[in-house]
Amino acid sequence: MTSIGKPLRLASLQDVACDTCHLNTLCLPGDLASEKVTELKEIIQPLARLARHEVLYYQGAELDNLYTVRSGSLKQVTTTETGEYLVTALFLPGELIGLDAIADEHYPGSVVALETSSVCALPFKPLEALCAQRLELCLRLHRSLSQEIHNERLRLRLLLRRTAEGRVACFLTALSERFQRRGYSPYRFHLSLSRADLGSYLGLTEETVGRALMRCQEQGLVTVRGREIRILDMPNLARLAHASGRRKAQGG
Amino acid sequence: MTSIGKPLRLASLQDVACDTCHLNTLCLPGDLASEKVTELKEIIQPLARLARHEVLYYQGAELDNLYTVRSGSLKQVTTTETGEYLVTALFLPGELIGLDAIADEHYPGSVVALETSSVCALPFKPLEALCAQRLELCLRLHRSLSQEIHNERLRLRLLLRRTAEGRVACFLTALSERFQRRGYSPYRFHLSLSRADLGSYLGLTEETVGRALMRCQEQGLVTVRGREIRILDMPNLARLAHASGRRKAQGG
DNA sequence: CGAAATGTTGAGCACATTCAAAGACCGTGG
DNA sequence: CCACGGTCTTTGAATGTGCTCAACATTTCG
Question: In sequence order, what DSSP letters do the residues of B14-28 get, joined into one string?
C-alpha cells in the first residue's frame, strides 16, 4: 500500500549553483545565456533535502513554488472527490514539479519523495514577474508546459489501448529513456515506485503489474529482481511497448 | 471509420469582435480589461470557417497559429510512429487549439472539423511578443496551459481504471458540463464524434462504446438516438462516472 | 435510388480483476 | 546475529469484462 508521509521539514539547505549543475540543460535555465541565468539564480531558493516518504507539499495547498528535482525522485498523488487515490505523476531529476498548479493556484496533488531527494524551489510570483522582463524565460516556461500537455495526452491515450504487458513495457522504455537523457544507465535502474504505485500510475492492480513484469522476464526482455530492473532486449521491449494495443493499427 | 479530410481552404473571412463575443470569458481575453483586449485584437486574424471534415492543420506542420473555437467542434487526431491512429482531443467553443504544439513548434496532431465550425487564429509569434509586454496575457496563457495539463492527467488516469460503462459516463458528464459552461443545454446535446472516434478517444472499440451507451439507456440514465443524447438522470450518471473504477477506493 | 459510411447485435475467447494466502524483504530491537 | 513485525511481492483459481470477427441494420449522401 502506498502512503503519504509526514510534513516536510526543510533541512540541510545548500547554495544553488545552476551554472555548475549538470542538469541545467534539462532544467528551466535550459539553453539560456549564462547572464540570464544569473537573474534566475537570484530567485531560486536553496536546495531542500527530503527523506523517503517526506512530503514536499499537500494537495490543496496554495501554490507558492515550482520545484525542480535535483536528485532522487518523487511521486504526485491525487485524491479525487470520490476518495479515489491516484498516482498522477513521477518526477525525475531535471523535471519541473507544480506546473499543473498554476491554473487555479493550488496544488492538485500531494508530492512525496520516493527516496532521499533534493529539489530547488522556484518562488512562483517572482518567477512570473521575471517572465515579464525576460521573454526567453517566458517562452521556456511555455515550452515546458506545452511539452507536458503533449506528453500526457499521447502517453495516456496510448496506455488506454494497451494490455497490462504493453503498459508495463511502455513504462519501462519511457523510464529508460528518461534515465538515459539524465546520464544514468538506460539498461539498469531502480524502480522507485512500488508495485501498487505502479499499478495506480498505469491503471492496473498490483498483482497484474507483477505478473506483467514476470511475463516480460520470461520472454527474456528484462530481469526483474524486486525493484531492480535490467533491460536485456531493448529492441523487443520497445516493440512490445509500441506494437499497438490489441487491435491492428488503423489508417487515417 | 474516422477520416481526415481535405486541406483547409480559408473561406468567408469575417471581422473579429472579442468584446462582443459571448465566449470571451472562456477564451484567452478572459477577464482582461478591455483596453488590453484591444491589443490582443490587433493580432487576431479574421474568422476562418470550416466545413465538416475540413482540416485546420496537419500533424507535423510548423506551428504558426493557436486557434480558439468560435462555433462548432473539432477533433485532434495523432498518428504515432507505429501507425496507430488516436483521437487525442475534442475542442468546443471557447477552447484553445494548439497548446500542445508550443513545445517543439510543430503540431503534434491533425485537427479536423467535426461539423461546420469557425475559429479565430492567434498568430503565435506576435502573441508571444505581446506576452513580453503584457504580463497579464502571459499569466493567462500560463493558466490555460497548466489547466490543460491538470485536466489531461486526472481525466485520463481516471479513465484508465474504469470499465467501458464508467468511461462513457465520464465522457458524457464531462461533456455535459462543458456544454453548460458554454451556455448550451447540459441535458440534451449532439455527439459530434462517431462511435469509432469516441472509442479511440476513450480507449475502447466502437462496438463496446455502443453497448455501453445502450446499457446506460437501459438503466434509464440517458436516451440515445444515434448521436442525439438526452440525459435523464444526471445524479446517477454522475455516480456511475465517479463511483470509482472497479475496485474500492483506497485511503492515502 | 443505390453506395458507402455508420451503427447494432451475437458468440467465443483472451485477459485483467478479485479474493485469499503464502512467500520474500526490510529495518528494529533483543 | 537472529527473531520479529511490518510492508511489499508473488502465486493460484474463479469470475467478469472487453475484444474480435462477422453478419446485419440503419443512416447519410451523391
Answer: B---GGG-TTTTTSS
When scoring A84, A138, A205 by the number of chain B Cβ atoms within 10 A, the one with the most, hence best to mutate, is: A84
Beta-carbon count within 10 A of B247 CB: 10
The answer to whether the CB of B197 falls within 8 A of the CB of B146 is no
Residue that wins the pLDDT comparison between B22 and B61: B61
What topology does CATH give the domain B162-242? Arc Repressor Mutant, subunit A (1.10.10)
B244, closest nucleotide (Cα–C1'): C17
* Facing A153 at nearest CB: one of B83, B88, B143: B88
- In CATH terms, the superfamily for domain A34-135 is Jelly Rolls (2.60.120.10)
Q: Is A114's pLDDT higher than 60?
A: yes
- CB contacts of A147 in chain B (<8 Å) are 103-104
Kindly report, as residue ranges, where domains of CATH 1.10.10.10 are found in chain A: 162-242
Interatomic CA distance for residues B28 and B49, integer angstroms? 20
Calpha distance A241→B84 (Å, rounded): 12
In chain A, residues with a C-beta closer than 8 Å to the C-beta of B101 are 146, 150
Q: What is the pTM of this model?
A: 0.90
Amino acid type, A15: D
Residues of A in contact with B158 (CB under 8 A): 80, 84, 86
Q: Are A232 and A197 in contact (CB under 8 A)?
A: no
